[in-house]
Amino acid sequence: MPHATTPSVSSDGSARSRHRHRDRDHRRHSMVYLEEPEPKQFRFCAELTLQIRSRRADHRSSESLEDEILYSLTNGGIKSQILSDYPYDHPTHTHTPSYKVWTITSDHSIQSKPTEYKHAMKFVSPLFRFSSFDTWIQHFESFMQVLNRDFETTSTHECSTSIHLAPLDQDHPEWTRSDIRALSKSILYFESCLDAVMPLYRRTSVFAKSNRYNKQMANLTTAECFSHLDSLSKRKYIAAHMVRCDPNSSTGRALGQRSDFPHSGYRWNFLNLVHNKSRGTIEFRQPPGSTTPGEAIAWIILAVCFAQVACAKGDSLRPKERPNVETLGDWVYREAVRANVPSEHRRRLRQLFDDAMPIVSDSKKADLSIVPAEPPITVHDKHGLIWREKGERNVAMEKFDGFFMDPVLSMWGDSSRL
């Protein structure tokens, strides 16, 4: 994280060229901390939401499509189960999602097109150690290969790739107050930089709202945000203030709220920690839907490497200095190198930042401080918000709960070894 003056971002290619060598020298100086002790380790679970259509049959219902997806994955050697709301299990349908296998379920917050035989589906991965690259990367590649072989996969503006993170520590597998505070500061400081690597529609999604401009933080300077986070005595208070929503916002009106309330639909979702669940996850919700294994893997690596460097250096950020996309890209990339991320996937990570598109003002100058007004939501968005609030199960958190309660956990380790 920056502890020296960072170069500003310019949309002027010639200006960027004139300062290229100076900026690189500065970034090398800023990354001296990478020689420090090993970064915090994480366990993760990914949720992929997509529109799916079979290549073999015309499914008018999502239930019959789920059955075919299960059949294809099983035949491809991918252990999977269909999530059921019935209070009992059977060999292929489960009420209690296992953290060892993929979970298949419909997603009613995303628009389906049954007349075109397309249905919105969510796929929730097993839990993995991030550092077990050979295991989880191969697993995602096999999963996506089978899915794309037998089905048409489409990512709409509503689709996403969400990554749930939890600390990996056998003795104390929980978020500490200092971890949450440092990560929160980094999220607020670098939000505009992470926005720049996202498609435009993921910067304005009602399901991935701005943490920096939520009800708690919107009227504070970045320095004031940092001081406010420092003043909070408990991790659940920090978590709640990172996802505080205004009842007069589009989300608040859609849900009929009358006072400030915590909500999951932020770029970084801390809601699982609000109710004092120290073993809850923090979820990165902003990435778009992934239709290839390379896309999904890149978003996972970005989320974890950002969290690693954020937890290490978030408290050393200088809030009055301007964040920089290129510098953040270098820090995250160097963290990936230090974590031994395979070179092919480091290149994908680098490409995300090389292709970054900062918000551009009318004067054609890149301005990371511009915040678009909250867009109006559609009728379908409203229905999606209500469904997520009232009817959606938190499958990823259920998997983490099952993992921590497993009586034989200490005997065989985590699911990255399955």
Overview of this structure, please?
This protein is of the alpha+beta class. The protein has 2 domains: 13-40 and 170-377, no CATH class; 44-169 and 380-417, no CATH class. The protein has 15 helices and 12 strands. The chain has helices at residues 13-18, 20-30, 62-75, 133-150, 177-196, 222-231, 235-242, 250-254, 271-274, 293-313, 325-338, 343-354, 379-390, 395-405, 409-412, and strands at 42-54, 80-83, 93-94, 102-106, 119-124, 128-129, 151-154, 161-167, 244-245, 261-262, 268-269, 282-284. Strands 1, 2, 3, 4, 5, 6, 7, 8, 11 and 12 form a 10-stranded mixed beta sheet that branches. It has a two-stranded antiparallel sheet with strand order 9-10. The protein is globular, with a radius of gyration of 21 Å. The model is unreliable at 1-35, 361-370 and 414-418 (pLDDT under 50).
Keywords:
ten-stranded mixed β-sheet, 418 residues, alpha+beta, 12% strand, two-stranded antiparallel sheet, 12 strands
Number of helices: 15
> What percent of residues adopt helix (DSSP H or I)?
40-55%
In the residues, how many domains can be counted? 2
Gyration radius, in Å: 21 Å
Principal-axis shape equals globular
Biased composition (Basic residues): 16-30
InterPro entries: Amidoligase_2
Region (Disordered): 1-32
